[in-house]
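A reminder from the course coordinator: this example appears on the midterm review sheet, so study it carefully.

Given structure:
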């Protein structure tokens, strides 16, 4: 019993030293590089099939995904029918599963350090839980402490603040003990609705600095490279 009490006290002391007890990471283009390696090449090929002659550029794809929920990109930008959207989604799932997509260098150190210090690493993403779990197992060898994914009901997935409210209840956290890390405005909407700090993952938009101005203005923190973020968290 004494050992249990001592270990619990040690855990508490370690967690107290953390800048944030809980990191809530977006997945696509915050942790893994999917816009360039998955989303864009697949969507460009799919559009060529259903809208012959379409010339989609990477910049247009990035801009659309930053400004709209992807379902609205399909529906409003490309006038897709429900059947076309269903086909796109099924094809994207297979493409994601079967094609490599690297992590952003250094993010593995952030996750490892946070976990080693006794902190929580959670995911709030519009990716699927199956894909998130596979990527975390492949690259980090861990299971996130909680996952809030695309297949939640629409009123409970990002940009809803429900994932953060649920985290606070489940893990007895205060808003100031959580940091959301995201590359898109939907993450800011989720965080601001719950009174939680957000860091902009500017490392994912290095080639589009003009697109980052709004996010830099909205978010409390912004980091151009993962190394800056690592230093911020752990004061190396």
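Designed residues:
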């Amino acid at each position: 019993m004494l050992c249990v009490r001592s270990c619990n006290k040690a855990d508490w002391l370690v967690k107290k030293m953390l800048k944030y007890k809980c990191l809530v990471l977006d997945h696509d283009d915050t942790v893994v590089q999917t816009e360039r390696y998955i989303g864009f090449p697949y969507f460009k090929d799919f559009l060529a099939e259903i809208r012959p002659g379409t010339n989609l550029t990477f910049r247009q794809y990035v801009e659309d995904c930053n400004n709209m929920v992807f379902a609205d990109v399909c529906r409003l930008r490309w006038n897709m029918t429900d059947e076309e959207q269903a086909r796109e989604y099924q094809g994207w799932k297979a493409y994601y599963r079967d094609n490599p997509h690297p992590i952003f260098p250094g993010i593995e150190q952030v996750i490892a350090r946070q976990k080693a210090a006794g902190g929580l690493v959670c995911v709030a993403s519009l990716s699927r839980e199956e894909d998130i779990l596979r990527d975390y197992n492949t690259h980090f060898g861990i299971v996130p402490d909680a996952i809030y994914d695309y297949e939640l009901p629409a009123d409970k997935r990002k940009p809803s603040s429900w994932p953060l409210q649920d985290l606070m209840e489940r893990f007895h956290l205060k808003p100031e003990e959580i940091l959301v890390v995201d590359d898109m405005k939907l993450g800011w909407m989720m965080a601001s609705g719950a009174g939680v700090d957000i860091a902009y993952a500017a490392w994912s938009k290095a080639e589009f600095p003009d697109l980052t101005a709004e996010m830099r203005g909205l978010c409390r923190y912004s980091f151009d490279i993962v190394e800056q973020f690592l230093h911020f968290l752990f004061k190396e």
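Strands lie at 22-25, 120-124, 146-148, 178-182, 197-201, 221-223. The two ends are 36 Å apart (CA to CA).
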